[in-house]
Write a structure and sequence with these properties.
410 residues; alpha+beta; Ubiquitin-like (UB roll); Cathepsin D, subunit A, domain 1; 6-stranded mixed beta barrel; 37% helix
Length: 410
């Protein structure tokens, strides 16, 4: 149907509308025709005001009916006081301040360029947040003005004043720092992003888990809870008890000498130190990285195992449980390049010390010398120097297989 709208300045407008059209939609059409904002329009039908939510048909509007439009711009325009700011930078009337900025498309465009955060707040519906951002911007402006005043005062300071010279030196140093920071933001913004540590999907004894790959950790580590969940706790050798020292310290409960791990579609033998570390589940350390000739390929973002026979991708942040994101901090407490482990007592029957691992190489008990000599002889036959073999065996506490892997890797 067609209705006729007469404005206060006697402008006649014809509109084609539907019987079920809302009054608010009619006002939107009139805004296009008259340039009068929807909020400032007041429509009257038979002397009664039409509310935005009403439907034309429900009000009895019929084809060729006349509707009056009155502009309430004068009454709705905010006063100058309403658009002012308080001493702390907040708006006197935040609602009026927000609407005034919204109506100015040029100002909004400039705001999106210079201060996107404030522009988003202005477009939002949280007036408390708007007030908070306005106060924050006021504090920033005050601080900037204070700094500028100090710099100006230093320009006219007594050149023989020691305190003034110290302030000038500090200002020059800070300016250099700020310029360096600005250059980093422009040319190396990645430096300010959080670095996600390296995790891969593995299976330990048939149980899937997310392994933290840490070439800075000397040993491969599994927590007691994880070992129990994987059915390996029954294999823990408690003769290898001790204390792991790094950034902090953790108790070494023992060692699991060998268990299968699955990386990709291949199985590999692996040994673990068992730690009482509830914050760190499983850490794939340097000992197994060397043994299985792993390559951390950051260009392709994969871990290559066995010299490249298997490649598994490092996990993205969304695939890593949030509880794991601080695991690297706890891993350094458990095992790091500076880790040392307190030696325990020697088992007289087995001649195996209870604390056996350290980053600087553990001391091998004298009762192990005959066995040590046999291992040395065997490795020397492979073409390695005697001193290098002894150092490797000390480094891995007499473990012949790990020592050989180290020597071949070197």
């Amino acid at each position: 149907m067609r209705i006729t709208v007469m404005t206060a300045d006697e402008q006649i407008i014809s509109l084609d509308v539907d019987l079920h059209e809302s009054v608010e939609n009619v006002k939107a059409l009139l805004e296009v025709e008259t340039q009068v904002p929807l909020q400032q329009q007041q429509l009257l039908y038979n002397g009664r005001e039409m509310k935005n939510s009403d439907k034309l048909g429900a009000l009895g509007v019929k084809d060729e009916d006349l509707v009056m439009m009155v502009s309430n711009a004068a009454s709705s325009a905010p006063s100058t006081n309403d658009l002012g700011l308080n001493p702390d930078g907040s708006a006197v009337n935040p609602g009026a301040f927000q609407q005034q900025i919204r109506r100015d498309s040029n100002l909004m465009a400039q705001l999106f360029q210079s201060d996107p955060e404030l522009a988003q707040v202005v477009l939002g519906n949280d007036l408390n947040r708007l007030q908070e951002v306005l106060r924050q911007r006021n504090r920033q402006r005050s601080e900037l003005k204070r700094q500028q005043d100090e710099e100006l005062a230093l320009l006219y300071a007594d050149p023989f004043d020691v305190e003034a010279q110290k302030k000038i030196e500090a200002a020059i140093r800070q300016k250099g720092i700020d310029e360096n920071w600005a250059a980093a933001l422009e040319h190396n913004p990645e430096a300010f992003a959080r670095v996600i540590m390296l995790y891969v999907d593995m299976e330990v004894n048939g149980f899937p888990l997310k392994a933290f790959v840490d070439s800075g950790a000397q040993s491969t580590i599994i927590s007691k809870n994880c070992a129990e969940r994987c059915g390996l706790l029954r294999l823990m050798d408690q003769r290898y008890k001790g204390i792991a020292h790094g950034v902090g310290q953790s108790e070494i409960l023992g060692r699991i000498h060998v268990a299968p791990i699955k990386i990709g579609n291949m199985f590999y033998p692996c040994s673990f130190m068992v730690l009482d570390s509830p914050n760190m589940e499983f850490l794939f350390g340097l000992d197994m990285l060397r043994k299985h000739q792993c390559i951390i390929d950051l260009k392709e973002n994969v871990l290559r195992v066995g010299g490249g026979e298997v490649s598994v991708p490092f996990l993205q942040e969304k695939d890593i449980p949030s509880s794991f994101l601080d695991e690297e901090r706890y891993s350094k407490q458990a095992s790091s390049s500076g880790t040392s482990m307190e030696p325990g007592t020697t088992d007289e029957n087995k001649n195996v010390p209870t604390g056996t691992q350290s980053s600087g190489g553990s001391r091998i008990d004298a009762s192990q010398k005959p066995d040590l000599e046999a291992k040395v002889a065997k490795l020397v036959e492979l073409g390695f120097g005697r001193e290098a073999v002894i150092q490797a065996l000390k480094l891995f506490d007499g473990n012949e297989e790990q020592a050989a892997g180290f020597l071949f890797g070197g």
